[in-house]
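Person: Please comment on this record:
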Amino acid sequence: MLTDIFLIRHGHPLQNTGLNYHVLPGPGLSDIGRDEARKAAEFLTDKGIEQFFVSPFDRTTQTAEPIVEALDVPVTFTFLVQEHNPSEKFDLIRDRAREFLRSTEDSPLKRVGVISHGSPIRAFLLELSQDRLDLSSHVYPGGNPAPTAGIWHAQRCEQTWRIELVFKPT
């Protein structure tokens, strides 16, 4: 049974690339973002994560590289945690989060990492907390619920999840 989920937002992306932010492949990471990803990897090294699930966008796959290398665990790329399409209603993003959570419930995995984007992370946080988590004190640039390379930890406590923002790169 899944006991821990680490929700990792991608590192700081390149700006003004001409690439559409919401369409694959999207922009990659800036030098700042690559540094943030390395710091996230350092933070995650002793967390016992067994597998990572990663959005296929360039900024998330580039965030995953130093993390997966440091932890030496399997990675699965999945559209369930990808960036939202601007025309996609939040209910559909939340449906993807629910589908992901259902798919992991019957797996032998206990501790997983999800490397994703602001909207899917918001969907996970609201879904896991059954809409009880107050995100009003967690509004970062772009209205995101985590800073770039920020990490939320959700830990199962019987029938509920204890959720906290555990890492912000400096």
User: Anything to note?
Assistant: Helices lie at 31-44, 58-71, 90-105, 118-128. The mean pLDDT is 96. Residues 26 and 160 are 35 Å apart (CA to CA). The longest strand covers residues 160-167.
